[in-house]
Amino acid sequence: MGSIRDLNARKLQREREHQSTASNQLTDIDALTGLPNRRYLINYLQGMFADTQRATKPSAAILFVDLDDFKLINDVMGHEAGNDVLIQVSQRLRSAVRDTDLVVRQGGDEFLVVILDAPRKDPPLTPKAPEEFVRIAQHLANRVIDHLKEPIVIGGQEHHLSASIGISLCPDHGRNASTVIQAADTAMYAAKKQGYGESFLYSIEMFTKRRERLSLKARLRTAIEQEKLALHYQPIVDMNSGRMVATEALVRWPQSSGEIIMPETFVSIAEESGLIKPMGDWVLETAARQLNRWHQAGHMLRMTINLSVHQLYPEGDPDRIAAIVRRYVDPVWVTLEITESVLMIDPTTMERVLNQLHGHGFRIAIDDFGTGYSSLSRLQHLPVQLLKIDRSFVAKLDQADRGAAMIPIIQQMAVSFDLEIIAEGIENRAQYEYLCATDIKLGQGFWFGRPVPASQIRHHQRLPGPGTAP
To answer: Is the pTM above the cut of 0.70?
Structure first.
């Protein structure tokens, strides 16, 4: 009887161990795709870093694969279709890599591939030189991108995807799992900035830039909270009379050293971090307050203010924007500028938001017109009153370039649609005289004046016109 009890106890122990092992295995598997998940990957990489035999460089590469615009599939076709795409993507990834490589679903539409410095054939070869291993990683990244470009069938219809891939090396770019994955993630965002369907190799310079960017973001948050930003104003001029009729409010970031950081350095950081909304509110309020002061002094100017897409979409609040401005001036005195590319993000929603803003009295201007992809048919239905010709066309007026030919075309189109035009970037007399001959009424650029603080705006100065010099 005692022997039977011992046998039963050992059997029960083995069953419990088997159940425990099976349970652990399930927690390491992504339920949707059947691929190993992030938990498995972390343990796998930590084991690899603990292997002292892998101390030579490089011993592995991480490919961080992110699908481009996957959110559109979920939004338009539903999550079931999105899941179907993810399953098909996982299958393509497995078919694109070697048997010795590991494919993992990180979560959402993010996948990772771990490439080991393993030989493709026997007998075993010596470890590859770093340059050769990097080439292998980049070649595989391009192979993955090509595989994912092939049409995916969803609901009987073909759809095209692309992916951006960041590459990091172990242990060059990190000596623990989290660091090396983060490095690949950083490289992936750099790939997206190059354009969809690209790959990018992480570098130490990227780490330095990322650290500087994080520092800049922290300082920007403080500057916004403490209202340490500044607005400069650039004249918009009636080119026939040389009279200033409006100003454009342009944000600047003064430093204690006297340096002024320009918006192209920090606006993208504000957009990525969510700081663009409080910063945008401050710009609207400060510009409206200054316009009120000018009106009180008898200078009846208009004001143009740039809006970021993040102030309009996906949670734009036209009523709130109008309330901020209305504390100081009637919105009819304010023109809100948006870039042409913003119109293409979600045309239906953007049309609704712009109509609401126009309903409050705002004029709507399209900035950098001619560089985007907005269709003329849509332009007819949008509440747009003003087009700003991009400075790149003005800069090429003295060259045999198609850009110069665009200006009279835009002018004729504007007349047909009953729109005003402002030519941006006017910097010399030749440009000014050409535009006057094209019958463009309003101009802006260094020829008339650089952006300056409100205190330096000279309202009664006659700005460059016929026969004058700046």
So the answer is: no
